[in-house]
Automatic annotation (TrEMBL):
Substrate binds at residues 52, 262, 317. It comes from Alteribacter lacisalsi. Gene3D superfamilies: PurM-like C-terminal domain (3.90.650.10), PurM-like, N-terminal domain (3.30.1330.10). Catalyzes the ATP-dependent phosphorylation of thiamine-monophosphate (TMP) to form thiamine-pyrophosphate (TPP), the active form of vitamin B1. The keyword Metal-binding applies. Reaction mechanism of ThiL seems to utilize a direct, inline transfer of the gamma-phosphate of ATP to TMP rather than a phosphorylated enzyme intermediate. SUPFAM superfamilies: PurM C-terminal domain-like (SSF56042), PurM N-terminal domain-like (SSF55326). This is Thiamine-monophosphate kinase.
């Protein structure tokens, strides 16, 4: 396998049997018609030991939190409310995970689930040889007609993000260097270990009724910007000075903020005036929205830093490159 994104394109069915599908493969989560004025939302993401987490970077409790959080984040990117979750756990035969540690992982999930009144309704238990794999499916819902798809960006739109990027990558580096003994109160370590999905932000955007393209930032700001630009057939001009981060003085700040990923903030595009309306709606609920650039005609993502304007590579995380 050379490129996960090319692989996904290669297995995408060219038609659906079910007329209720609103959006299948190609967005953060699938949308299909449900009952009583709702779209159902379904999404699955997996964490594999030593790929997404290690015993050195995360406790079992944090692994559970994160496994659910990354999925809730995809529901947030569709503007939805998470409702149910199912968990498949593949436990190493090597005995590297004790039963109590796995229960602790579930506690990390259920504490986060309680915040959203989500219920665990099923899953699967099986084995691997030597690494833990945990896969979570989340079902959510959003009001019928709300489609915050990657295809929604238009030239003239403003590009925005919902919060600082790069902290998770900085935290990962700290944890790889210092292990779990890195200061417990360290904000970067926490950004990496217990990311908070931006459900409230997604709900405000869904409630606004404004045409918006939305993605959560799992693979990195640049990569997600490319996902929206490609899906919408547009280009993007981003401004480094506008991109929020908490990495002042760090040599690797640009790399972490643009390509680090796993911050689970949302990146979106909406009309210029609509973005200002969204910003005000966010402000009324004590949240921030940061304009970071504009959508233009053409292809690619560009970054201006002072006088320099360069093409921003998709970069970011790709499981096979
Ligand atoms: N192996 C697969 N089989 C079927 N559909 C897939 C597969 N892998 C990904 N997809 C679909 O492809 C789209 C993009 O998936 P991707 O995992 O890149 O998005 P994401 O979950 O938002 O990002 P991330 O996994 O980086 O958090 C989604 O619609 C997803 O459901
Ligand atoms: C121990 C360890 N090493 C490296 C990383 C970095 N990392 C792994 S997967 C990923 C992208 C998101 O994954 P996906 O696309 O599957 O959602 C990133 C940035 C980590 N989290 N832990
Ligand atoms: Mg996503
Ligand atoms: Mg995924
Ligand atoms: Mg990914």
């Amino acid at each position: 396998m050379k490129d996960e994104f090319a692989f996904i394109r290669s297995i995408q069915p060219d038609r659906h049997h079910q007329p209720t599908v609103v959006a299948g493969i190609g967005d953060d989560a699938a949308l299909y018609d449900g009952e009583d004025g709702w779209h159902e939302i379904a999404t699955v993401d997996t964490l594999a030991e030593d790929i997404h987490f290690s015993r050195k970077t995360m406790t079992p409790y944090q692994t559970g939190h994160r496994a659910l959080a990354v999925n809730i984040s995809d529901i947030a990117a569709m503007g939805g409310r998470p409702v149910f979750y199912l968990v498949s756990v593949s436990v190493p035969k090597a005995g590297t995970w004790r039963e109590e540690e796995l229960q602790e992982m579930y506690r990390g999930m259920s504490d986060l689930a309680a915040k959203y009144e989500m219920d665990l309704i099923g899953g699967d238990t099986n084995a691997t040889y030597d690494k833990l794999v945990v896969s979570v499916t989340v079902i959510g819902r959003v009001e019928k007609g709300v489609k915050l798809l990657r295809t929604n960006a238009r030239p003239g739109d403003t590009v925005f993000v919902t919060g600082p990027v790069g902290s998770s990558a900085a935290g990962l580096q700290l944890l790889l260097d210092e292990g779990l003994e890195a200061e417990k109160e360290n904000k970067r370590a926490q950004a990496h270990q217990t990311p908070m999905p931006q459900v409230q932000a997604g709900r405000i955007i869904a409630g606004s009724g404004l045409r918006t393209a939305l993605n959560d930032i799992s693979d990195g700001l640049a990569s997600e910007a490319h996902e929206i630009a490609n899906a919408s057939g547009v280009a993007m001009e981003l401004e480094w000075a506008l991109i929020p981060h908490e990495l002042d003085g760090e040599e690797r700040q640009k790399e972490w903020a643009l390509f680090g990923g796993e911050d689970f903030q949302l990146i979106g595009c909406a009309g210029e005036n609509d973005t200002e309306k969204l910003r005000q709606l966010f402000e009324a609920e004590g949240l921030k929205l940061y304009p970071i650039g504009t959508v233009t005609e053409g292809t690619g993502v560009w970054l201006t830093d002072g006088k320099e304007r360069t093409r921003l590579d998709k970069g970011g995380y790709n499981h096979f490159t």
